[in-house]
Design a protein that fits this description.
lyase; Ribosomal Protein S5, domain 2
Amino acid sequence: MLIKKPAVCGTLESSDVQITIRPNEGNGIRIELDSVVKTIFGDEIIRTVQEVLNEFEVRDADISLVDKGALDCVIRSRMQAVILRASGEQYDWSKEDALWKTA
């Protein structure tokens, strides 16, 4: 999925994460993390971000995260939302529904 424009998702409230994504065409993925739990969970947060980028086939993006202790499920949902906002594309959520029905 191509990141066409900058987008922001999330808040700076406790237990949330604010994610900003920008186009970075031809320069790969760059992830910057500012987190209150970076020393403990930083690697896991980055891994989650990379997993969502891979799921949406994002190859070039500049991502900044300001994490205030968000759970993995919050980070995933914020990443999904910000990618879709930045791409301008509609996503077929029935793919996700099918995954839950088989689980």
